[in-house]
Amino acid sequence: MLAHDSDLELFRDNFRRFMLDNIEPYYAAWEKAGIMPREVWNQLGENGYLCVDMPEQYGGYGVPTNYSLMLVEEAARAGYGALSTAISVHSEITAPYILHIGTEAQKLQWIPKLVSGEAVGAIGMTEPGAGSDLQAIRSSAILNGDHYVLNGSKTFISNGQHADLVILAAKTDPAARAKGVSLLLVDTHLEGFKKGTNLEKIGMHSQDTSELFYDNVKVPADQLLGAAGQGFAYLMQNLPRERLGIAVTALGAIFGCIDVTVKYVNDRQAFGQAIGKFQNTRFTLAQAKIDALATEAFVRQSIEQYMESKLDVPTAAAVKAYASDVQCKIADNLLQLFGGYGYMTEYPISRFYVDARIQRIYGGTNEIMKEVVARELLGR
Ligand SMILES: Cc1cc2nc3c(=O)[nH]c(=O)nc-3n(C[C@H](O)[C@H](O)[C@H](O)COP(=O)(O)OP(=O)(O)OC[C@H]3O[C@@H](n4cnc5c(N)ncnc54)[C@H](O)[C@@H]3O)c2cc1C
C-alpha cells in the first residue's frame, strides 16, 4: 500500500507520463469526435488509475482518497477537462456509492469491474423535468416479485454513452415525493435500456453526455442500492465527495490556465517587448496566482476533512461553488491575455475556458450551493 507523500508524488509523475504517452497525442482528435474511445477506460484500469482508493479486496489499492483525487486534478491541469470529469464520475462518485451503501455481493459484483475499466460507471439523477428539483423525478421502479420494472428517462448523464453501470434514482413509491426515491444499480445491457444521442455541448467535447431511456427494464431486486425510499438520504451522504471532485477539477484547471499563460506571455511580443512585461499582464497573472493559492488552501483542507470523515454538506457545497467560480474567472481573465489567439481552439486556453463553464452548473448549480450554505446559516 502506498502511504507517504513521496509515494503520492511518484504516482503523480507516473500519471503525468501516462497522459503524455497515451492521452496527449490523441486528445484533440477525441475532442473533435465528441467522444473518447471506450478502450481508454481499459487502459486507465490496466495502468491502475481507476478507483484507486477502493479496498484491496475489491481490486483497488486501498490508498487514501487524495491519491484518487490527484488523478482528477492532474487530468484537469493538463487541459483534459473532459477526462477529468469522466474519471471523477467513475471513481469519485459511482464506486464510493457502492462501497458506502452496497451489499457485500454488490461490491464484489461491481467494484472490481470499475477498477479494471471493464465497466464504466455513471450516475443518473437528472431528468428533463427534474434538475435542481430532484424530488420531481418521474422515473419509476416498481417491485414485481424478484425484480423492479424500471420506466422513464434521464438526461445530461456524464459517461452516458460508454456506461455499463448507472446508479439510477427512481421512485419505488411514485405517490411519495422525496421518501419515494430509491437508488438502483442498473446494468445498461439489460433489455429495454437505450442510450440516446451523445449530446453536443459548448465544451468538454470528448466527455460523452447522454440521454438514457428505459422501457419496462427488469432490474433484479438484489440491485437495489441500500434501502428502498432512502435515495435522498444517500444523496446527502455522497454529495460531498461528488462536489469535492468538482472542486479538485477546478483547482487543477486553475493551475493549468496559469501554466499555459505564463509560457505564452513570455513568448508573445507587442510594442517591442514580451506582453509579460506589461503591468496589466503581470497583475492579472499575479491575481490569478493569489486566487489559485486561496482556492488550493480551501480545496486541500476539504480533502483532509473528507478523509477524516468531517467534510459536511455545506462546506462541500461552499468549496464546489468557490473553486468553480474562481476557475471561470481565471479562465476568462487569462484567455484575454492571449488576444485573438485565445479564441482559437488550437490554443489550450480556449479549451480551459469552455470546459470551465459547466463546473458552475453540474453537481448542483452554484445557486443551489448557496442555498445549502444559507440553510445552515439561516435555517429553512
Ligand atoms: C455536461 C453536463 C453533465 C452533467 N452530468 C450529470 C450526470 O452525470 N448525472 C446527473 O444526474 N446529472 C448531470 N448533469 C445535470 C446537472 O446536474 C443539472 O443540469 C443541474 O443540476 C441543473 O439542473 P437543470 O439543468 O435542470 O437546471 P434547473 O434546475 O432548471 O435550473 C435553472 C436555473 O434555475 C436556478 N434555480 C433552480 N432552482 C433554484 C432555487 N431553488 N434557487 C435559486 N435558483 C434556482 C438554477 O441555479 C439555474 O440557474 C449534467 C449536466 C450537464 C450540462
From TrEMBL:
Keywords: FAD, Flavoprotein, Oxidoreductase. Gene3D superfamilies: Acyl-CoA dehydrogenase/oxidase, N-terminal domain, Butyryl-CoA Dehydrogenase, subunit A, domain 2, Butyryl-CoA Dehydrogenase, subunit A, domain 3. Its cofactor is FAD. Residues 7-118 form the Acyl-CoA dehydrogenase/oxidase N-terminal domain. One of its GO terms (molecular function) is flavin adenine dinucleotide binding. It comes from the Bacteria. PROSITE patterns: ACYL_COA_DH_1, ACYL_COA_DH_2. The keyword Flavoprotein applies. This is Acyl-CoA dehydrogenase. It comes from Aquirhabdus parva.
